[in-house]
Amino acid sequence: MSYSETALDLLEKGQLDDFKKQFALALRHDDDDTLYGLAEELYSLGFINQSKRIYENLLKKYPDEDELRTNLADILVGEDKTDEALLLLNEIKPDSSAYVQSLMVAADLYQTQELFEVSEQKLLKALELAPDETVIRFALAELYFTMREFAKSIPLYMQIIEAGNLTFSAVNIVERVGVAYANEGRFEQAVGYLEQVHSGEMTPDVKFELGFTYLQLKDTKKAIETLSELQESDSQYTSLYPYLGQAYEAENQNDEALKVLQEGLAVDEYNEKLWLQAAKTALKLDDEDLAKQYLDKGRQLDPEDLEIAIQLSNLFVKQEKWQDNIDLVSSYLDQEKVDPQLYWNLAVSYNHLENLDKAQEAYENAQPFFMDQKDFLKPAVYFFRKVGQMEMAFTLLKKYLELVPEDDEMNLLLEDFQQMGF
């Protein structure tokens, strides 16, 4: 046996001290081809420093061997020594047999720096030069997947499958296609691939995507089953809770939905959107006190969240807490964009408190956004008539009757306006 073979045998047996001695002997006595093979083996086993040492020694002896440069550059990328790696790669010319490999190493380097477009250019060039190399197609597909450019990744993955590779480099390609389709919103295609992933290979991410896909396809029973399995196996997978809650609500199981959301909050208490969703579910169960508690929690986490503010404002209006609503909404009026629902709620509150000037201002701000909302138009007609804004009242009345022509009360009011000459 060569010293290299003995060193690998000792390494396999876990005799590290003896391995170090044999490795030193291998460096002194084994031929260069044997050492190159040892470097490859050590790299695959994770003994990067020893592999790097061999490549450095060989490159000194064979400065024209560009394959040594790419191997060494690959190690340097892993060590985050990007400048050194680039220096080596830039020495490799397009006519070199190692040029395609150097492009792939460079692509990996730029990807680690999140320079995705540069990485893409390198891989596209490599694929142009070696169109039959599956490893390049896979690397490009993975780059697009990382960039969330799923539409670009799918054809590449499909070509890998068509070539007979359901897995490549320990990656389940069928799973990748399913997840990519799901992220593209192509749920019918996604479910066909995701369901093919064997249970033993079903990672939490894939199980989540499958449950999410079932939900989008309105197959809520399968969504509940899949996401519940995920919760049982990994309760810390916080993304599952909003969608499992949605699935239960779609099945009119609001009690179960609230329970799931509460379990989610136990592991993700800083998620203001989860507090908001739990509040909405509590309202469906007519538990206004619990909804208020949850909305307050969400607002503490993100006071700028308009959706939480709107839900809280709606609740105050429903409970006829007019001043509480005014105090709440007033804190949002100085924002660059104010949701018109807040103006509507503010108008109702000021009107009930007989602050008609403020109510009119709020109604005027809200009015352009709700001309197709009968629930807004009817009380607005009465309000503007009350404050003497008859032209506005008549305009809103006509719009209301376009939406609800059978309302006898408002038809009588129309006759009154017509008698006044409108």
From TrEMBL:
<keyword id="KW-0802">TPR repeat</keyword>
<dbReference type="Pfam" id="PF13181">
    <property type="entry name" value="TPR_8"/>
</dbReference>
<dbReference type="Pfam" id="PF13428">
    <property type="entry name" value="TPR_14"/>
</dbReference>
<protein>
    <submittedName>
        <fullName>Uncharacterized protein</fullName>
    </submittedName>
</protein>
<dbReference type="InterPro" id="IPR051012">
    <property type="entry name" value="CellSynth/LPSAsmb/PSIAsmb"/>
</dbReference>
<dbReference type="InterPro" id="IPR011990">
    <property type="entry name" value="TPR-like_helical_dom_sf"/>
</dbReference>
<dbReference type="Pfam" id="PF13432">
    <property type="entry name" value="TPR_16"/>
</dbReference>
<keyword id="KW-0677">Repeat</keyword>
<dbReference type="InterPro" id="IPR019734">
    <property type="entry name" value="TPR_rpt"/>
</dbReference>
<feature type="repeat" description="TPR">
    <location>
        <begin position="238"/>
        <end position="271"/>
    </location>
</feature>
